[in-house]
């Protein structure tokens, strides 16, 4: 990789995120996967040239490993800082030293997942991008104010999640390991909601069936043989649904999904009905 440009307090990196695909499937580890294009713009004083000296050439393409590159990483990455985060594509360099790099990127970040309303509800996750070695006095992280937040979302077809809200802000923070320096990062907050048409048939309709069956058990006379048979059928159905849900949704210690509480209570009521039959 090429040598670094002259760093002073006026150097800055203009950063912008364009989300292409988002996935929140690893509920057990609470990890969100974000596929995006990351637009970075900075000035390298070593790449200045006079256009007239080079046949009027104003723009050239250069390999990413031939010039200085900013070490922008996700501070809250779940995979550590891997070299495969960004695609290895060329940069566009202008005669005034401005470098523009838009690599495709894949981030896996920790997310505070709330499964209380599973499979419905919204989840808000954050992505913090900043330099790992340069402090705020050397390189300043800036947001491209010309880009609206609505333009940051361009999801590809087939994505199972919708992005309902994206916010971005610049943060300046110091850390206890090096309290004399300040570090800047861009904090993105992304709120997603699952596309739920398929879940109407695999969650909502079975729940309605269990409600009707459970009510039917208590509507029948206590001495009715059909009451015991219907209780047994309902008991089996509820157990199957609970096992299906448990294989797809991790049960967190502080946030029990409401659907799990519903089936658990239904199981208890049906079991009580069968015991009372005797």
Structure description:
The protein has 278 residues and is of the alpha+beta class. Helices cover 23% and strands 37% of the residues. The chain has 3 helices and 11 strands; from the N terminus they run βββββββββββααα. The strands form 2 sheets. Strands 1, 2, 3, 5, 6, 7 and 9 form a 7-stranded mixed sheet that branches. A 4-stranded antiparallel sheet has the order 4-8-11-10, with no helix packed on it. A hairpin with a 4-residue loop joins strand 1 (12-26) and strand 2 (31-48). The longest helix is centred in the C-terminal third of the chain and has 24 residues, at 225-248. Residues 1-10 have low confidence and may be disordered.
Shape: elongated
Report the end-to-end length measured between terminal Cα atoms.
80 Å
How many E-type strands?
11
* Helix-residue proportion: 10-25%
Q: Please state the average pLDDT score.
A: 79
The tally of helices reads 3
Helix/strand structural class: alpha+beta
Query: Main sheet?
Result: 7 strands, mixed
Secondary-structure element order, N to C: EEEEEEEEEEEHHH
Question: What is the C-alpha radius of gyration, as a whole number of Å?
Answer: 27 Å
Beta-sheet strand percentage? Answer: 35-45%
Low-confidence stretches: 1-10
């Amino acid at each position: 990789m090429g040598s670094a440009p002259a760093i002073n307090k006026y150097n800055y990196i203009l950063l912008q995120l364009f989300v292409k695909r988002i996935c929140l499937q690893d509920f057990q580890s609470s990890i969100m996967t974000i596929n995006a294009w990351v637009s970075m713009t900075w000035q390298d004083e070593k790449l200045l040239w006079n256009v007239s000296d080079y046949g009027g050439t104003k723009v050239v393409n250069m390999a990413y490993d031939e010039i200085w590159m900013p070490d922008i990483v996700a501070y809250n990455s779940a995979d550590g800082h891997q070299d495969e985060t960004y695609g290895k594509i060329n940069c566009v360099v202008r005669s005034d030293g401005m470098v523009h790099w838009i690599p495709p990127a894949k981030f896996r970040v920790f997310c505070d997942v709330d499964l209380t309303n599973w499979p419905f509800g919204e989840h808000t996750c954050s992505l913090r991008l900043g330099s790992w070695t340069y402090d705020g006095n050397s390189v300043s992280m800036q947001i491209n104010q010309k880009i609206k937040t609505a333009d940051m979302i361009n999801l590809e077809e087939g994505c199972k999640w919708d992005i309902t809200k994206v916010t971005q802000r610049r943060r300046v923070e110091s850390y206890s390991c090096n309290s004399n320096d300040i570090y800047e990062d861009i904090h993105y907050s992304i709120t997603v909601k699952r596309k739920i048409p398929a879940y109407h048939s695999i969650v909502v309709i079975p729940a309605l069936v269990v409600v009707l069956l459970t009510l039917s058990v208590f509507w029948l006379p206590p001495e009715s043989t059909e009451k015991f048979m219907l209780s047994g059928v309902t008991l089996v159905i509820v157990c199957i649904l609970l096992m299906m849900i448990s294989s797809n949704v991790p049960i967190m210690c502080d946030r029990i999904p409401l659907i799990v509480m519903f089936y658990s209570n239904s199981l208890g009521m049906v079991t009580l009905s069968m015991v009372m039959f005797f």
